[in-house]
Amino acid sequence: MYKIAVLPGDGIGPEIVPEAIKVLEAVSRLYDIEFQYTEALIGGAAIDKRGQALPPETLELCYQSDAVLLGSVGGPKWDTLPAEKRPETAALLPLRKKLGLYANLRPAYLFAPLAEASPLKKEVVSGTDLLIVRELTGGLYFGEKKREKTATGEVAYDTMVYTTEEIERIVRLAFTIARQRRRHLTSVDKANVLTSSRLWRDTVERLKNEYPDVTVTHMYVDNCAMQLVRRPDQFDVIVTENTFGDILSDQASVLTGSLGMIPSASIGGRVALYEPAGGSAPDIAGQQKANPLAMILSAAMMLKYSFKLDQAAAAVESAVDRVLAEGYRTQDIYSPGTKVVGTAAMGDLVRQELERETRWKKS
Ligand code: IPM
Ligand code: MG
């Protein structure tokens, strides 16, 4: 039996998390595995009900679980709070840090039926299958920061700090993952300007000798932003620091049709965390418009990375593929000639498809 901490959070979180659980419940029946879910508050929802974004019982539940399924945190209601209270900086970042989740895996994979859904040309996005390995517990997000008054106004700074150890562990992980894929690693930095990037690049150069079967390209982050929309099929695994990875993963989502298609796994500690790469989308929250597929695919990553249920994970992914092939879309991935369905309906379709396919394979 696996214990799963369920943290719906804010915005579309409470709408998409139940869809992932629906699919996990089908996996449980079909593969005869038991999942136990315990829900807890996080983010703005926790601020409202408990007075703090990451209540101690939520953190304790995560420590006691085998994996964490997170919807999303944040929204306009809590945007004006000071940093030490906000959902993002007081809940999500400390949770990642405390669980030791230094690596965030964000696959940008184009399901073939969605080639029409991207605002980019079909011939550009076709064949997109890349994985961003984002460093998650260092860099600008966690470096020293300050804002203070001066004689004429204010001064504020954030520092991008990296140690050799921090770079080594994420780069090694990226090499290892590249070996299981197409064996090409693009290391993204800004070594022409930033000192931390120079250490990053030197470290990659040193380590690459240990992985002779993986080809390595160094790329400046500005160039990478351009290459991603110019010729995405040149990428296999991209490894980069925290802020660059945050920005590039939103950009890469456009290749897949929508931000609502990018799942993520944050790994590196005993308990891993699975959350969609997109945010809380407050503009469409509560209207059954959100795309639950990133959340469902995050659950598939949980099956694979935390529970080593590779077959079940692949079955969920292929169920998603077939639902899309049948022409069902949430509004974010709509293109003419397809059928728009709501959040829960999309979850039902994936569950049904998973049940149909798995039964057929077993019989
Ligand atoms: C993400 C999000 C978060 C991040 C925010 C909500 C703090 O944008 O997971 O990409 O910047 O890491
Ligand atoms: Mg982001």
Structure write-up:
By secondary structure, the protein is an alpha/beta fold. The protein is built from twelve helices and 14 strands. The protein has helices spanning 13-31, 44-50, 56-64, 87-98, 122-125, 164-179, 195-207, 221-230, 242-253, 293-305, 310-325, 343-362, and strands at 2-9, 35-39, 67-72, 103-109, 129-135, 145-149, 154-158, 184-189, 215-220, 237-240, 265-267, 272-274, 328-329, 339-340. Strands 2-1-3-12-11-4-5-10-8-9 form a ten-stranded mixed β-sheet, with helices on both faces. A two-stranded antiparallel ribbon has the order 6-7. A two-stranded parallel sheet has the order 13-14. Helix 1 (13-31) packs parallel to helix 12 (343-362). The two termini are 25 Å apart. The relative contact order is 0.17. The model has no long low-confidence stretch (mean pLDDT 97). Magnesium ion is lined by residues 246, 250.
Bound molecules: 3-isopropylmalic acid, magnesium ion
- The coarse overall form would be globular
Roughly what percent helix?
40-55%
Mean pLDDT: 97
Would you count the extended β strands for me?
A: 14
Structural class of the secondary structure composition?
alpha/beta
* Low-confidence blocks of residues: none
Largest beta sheet, briefly? Answer: 10 strands, mixed
Structure annotation, total helices: 12
